[in-house]
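Troubleshooting: if your tokenizer reports a length mismatch, compare your output against this known-good record of 488 residues.
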Amino acid sequence: MIIKLDLDSIESYSQFLKIKSLPRYCFQGRTAWFPDEYAGRLGLSTESTNDAEYMPIDGLFDYQRDIARLAIKRKKFAAFVRPGMGKTLIGTEFARHASQQLGITRNVLMLSPPMVIKQTIEEASRFYGGSLPIQRIRASELADWTVNGSGVGITNYEGLKPDVPRGRLGALIADESSLLKSHYGKWGQEVIRLGKGLDWKLCLTGTPAPNDRIEFANHAVFLDAFPTINSFLAKFFINRGQTQERWEMKAHAAGAFYKALSHWSIFMSSPATYGWKDNCGTIPPIEVHIHDVDMTDAQNDQVRKLTGTLFSNHVGGIGDRSKLARIAKGGDSNKPAFIRELIESWPDESTLVWCRFNDEQDRLKAEMPWAASISGDTPDHERERIIAGFQAGSIKTILTKAKILGFGLNMQVCTRQVFSSCHDSYEEYFQAVMRSNRVGSTRPLNVHLPVTEAERQMMENVLRKAHRVEEDTLIQERLFKEMALAAA
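Known-good structure output:
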């Protein structure tokens, strides 16, 4: 809601003080903006054409139904829900309701990683039949579709270009929205640009801020919780000026930070936290196996030259970490043969092997010619053929990268994962593991981490990040349960 304040009016001054007490507001000169949902606190009423009752489809889990209802009520919302819990149906319910409210003159666009698009369309077909057709929009078609299209469309993030107009766009849904995390990234800026002025916006991800709390900034701006990235950062953080970890949360600001987030988002790692039926207990466990792999003499020499010591006790900045990762799996490495022997020890199980570098993936393919390989150069139709074969069981092993298949896909058929690369991206590790440990999984997932001495510190860094993210999620879940659900 937008209202004009009269500087000479006592009543306007009273309104000014009430607005200042709201969880979300913005002043520009004499103009005040705040979400319509808070109008009642100022004794104001608002008429909305988007207030039709939400009617959920049959077959949803109770938390899917309730989170979809909450997102529809708020209209601008983020569901930070553990991978494998069925975020897709929350998104399609939001899309269906928004499309009904917007009518035939406005369209709804879903953004997704490339390999998740087909899966989303198939899932919508399975749950909605023909009542919610989702059109796949190619990158070359997107600019025309936003102007002339109708209904619900889905496209790849990579299709977002500065020349794509907002056109008839009425709702925007960002699936796997952790891809927005870098607030200087091109996709994040394009999503924010397209979403400006839209009443219906939704973010869906299981890892909203895997590396730092400041990564919530793009979500906050996209959902109009804050007008700019800097206003979000200035509210809760201090800029220490260093090149690393320069944004530090203000003392005692954690409570206010998560309280602010609870007005436009929900965190959920377990439905039972909020009193919903607990279906997490049915998900088999993840069993992690760390394997020590000896480095060759050539690798030891390279580590000494890079670090100045025999042991890589301090891996340095991102450049040195990348160099150590390359050394660990370089041309003269024991890893490819070790990984092949591992996989040959479970011939009847399906395995995903996660790589980081092209040459590393090529070496593994040479070591295991019977394995399928998906790289950045693999055409979409070939990727879909390999994935379909893997899910059907005719292909037992896939070599790929987390940035290609690590987000959004359902790969419950896989009971073994091997990380050929061990580096310090918690998000890539967590998202990759969750491809195969989801609602619907029937067997434990065995995750294998073959590591050399050069990689051990990076692996430990991943585990430390995992612990911190778990703590953050528990804090947000508790705050949301105390405040947001009580007010819903």
